[in-house]
Amino acid sequence: MSLKVALLGAAGGIGQPLGLLLKQNPAITELALFDVVPVVKGVAADISHVNSPAVTTGYTKDDDGLKHALTGAQVVVIPAGVPRKPGMTRDDLFNINAGIVRDLAQAIAEFCPKAFVCVISNPVNSTVPIAAEVFKAAGTFDPKRLFGVTTLDVVRSSTMSAQAIGDPTGAPKYTIPVVGGHSGVTILPLLSQSKPALPESLLGDNEKLKALIHRIQFGGDEVVEAKAGAGSATLSMAYAGYYFVQRLISAAFEGKTGVVEPSYVYTKDEASLASEIGESLDFFSVPVELGPEGVKKLLPVGKLSEYEASLLKAALGELSGSISKGVSFIQTPK
Ligand code: NAD
Ligand code: LMR
Questions:
Q1: Per-residue pLDDT tens for 124-149?
Q2: What digits encode the pLDDT tens for the residues 22-78?
Q3: Ligand 2 pocket check for 185: Cβ under 6 Å
Q4: pTM attached to this predicted model
Q5: Phi and psi at residue 111, in whole multiples of 5°?
Q6: Start-end ranges of CATH 3.90.110.10 in the chain?
Q7: Please, where in the chain does CATH 3.40.50.720 lie?
Q8: Can 214 be counted among the known catalytic residues?
Q9: SS (H, E, C) the chain
Q10: Is the CB of 232 under 6 A from ligand 2?
Q11: Which ligand has the minimum distance to the alpha carbon of residue 97?
């Protein structure tokens, strides 16, 4: 089997460690690293010495680099764009990143229209709708193949929950679905559905529960503040991004079944989701069963606690505005 993965924004804080993680996946036979900065060629030369199968090449804009990086790609991962500084929201990144994602999506539509596309660039709540609108305009949109990567919220949920219950080394045990979007109050970790269940000493203590959910929702700020102007989460994001991509690869290309990961996907016309959340949104993060076609099935959000249901209301309002902002960025004539 041959499998080509293209990573766009490969010289960045996320791109470099994510490229390294992708390189060590034995299923990947070709790894194309694209960035607008020339150092990407050095990053590719460096990573290419790792003795795994993926033939690794670096491309910049020169010599039709984006075209060469994307042609034949079956999976495209996009961490291209600017990160936050303290005091900024993810939406503050819209002005720069919207155009970056639009242009990259246009190139994907042209050079690898059938690829699975995993968008990391913020604000994810808007950049995924932007990519979808570009694909629709190009006639290549397949809702089963477009994913907003929200896995860092899932990763944080298990780590921070384990810490909150005084079992910090137990983080890997807890699988917690996260639904909604990827920004502040739109991030809705369903702690009541943790497997294994979290203890009553947490779930029954409103103050502790509130503090934990707030910490998960604003986990990105912890890193942005600690890095003090030097960027946002890169290493944990590379871990989370790789985790999602290798799960997708295992379901789409390696025949693995029962692979379920939350992701921010196209949910328009999903009547059962609309009746669960009380509103019809074009995009929403839900647990997704992955398969050869990408999205095999959207799984239900499931039963929410009373507190989670109240948080869902707050999430829906912000999310719907972010989706419309992304859609009008492409649809409104400039
Ligand atoms: P970074 O600045 O370190 O790296 C971004 C890279 O993108 C740079 O190398 C830059 O040259 C490149 N780039 C810019 N325009 C490009 C273009 N048109 N084509 C290709 N490459 C281009 O930033 P980072 O820390 O790696 O973060 C990247 C993005 O990921 C940010 O928008 C950040 O907010 C987002 N992010 C998302 C999540 C998530 O959970 N989804 C988590 C962390 C960060
Ligand atoms: C995160 O959640 O860490 C990312 O979305 C980056 C950010 O801006 O916080």
A1: 999 999 999 999 999 999 999 999 99
A2: 999 999 999 999 999 999 999 999 999 999 999 999 999 998 999 999 999 999 999
A3: no
A4: 0.98
A5: -105, -20
A6: 151-327
A7: 4-149
A8: no
A9: CCCEEEEECCCCCCHHHHHHHHHCCCCCCEEEEECCCCHHHHHHHHHHCCCCCCEEEEECCHHHHHHHHHCCCCEEEECCCCCCCCCCCHHHHHHHHHHHHHHHHHHHHHHCCCCEEEECCCCHHHHHHHHHHHHHHHCCCCHHHEEECCHHHHHHHHHHHHHHCCCHHHHHHCECCEEECCCHHHEEECHHHCECCCCHHHHCCHHHHHHHHHHHHCHHHHHHHHHCCCCCCCHHHHHHHHHHHHHHHHHHCCCCCCEEEEEEEECCCCHHHHHHHCCCCCEEEEEEEEECCEEEEECCCCCCCHHHHHHHHHHHHHHHHHHHHHHHHHHCCC
A10: yes
A11: 1
For tokens 């992955």, the residue is: 290
Pocket probe for ligand 2: among 93, 182, 224, the residue whose CB has the most ligand atoms within 8 Å is 224
Token pair recorded at residue 59: 């491309």
Domain spanning 151-327, CATH architecture? Alpha-Beta Complex (3.90)
Contact between residue 229 and residue 7 where contact means Cβ atoms under 8 Å apart = no
The answer to whether 35 is annotated as binding is yes
Atom of ligand 2 nearest to the CA of 221: 9
4-149: CATH homologous superfamily?
A: NAD(P)-binding Rossmann-like Domain (3.40.50.720)
Model ipTM? Answer: 0.99
Q: How many residues make up the chain in this entry?
A: 334
Question: Which residue among the candidates 49, 68, 182, 214 is catalytic per the annotation?
Answer: 182
Strand 283-291 to 259-266 pairing:
antiparallel
What residue's CA is closest to ligand 1, atom 33? Answer: 83
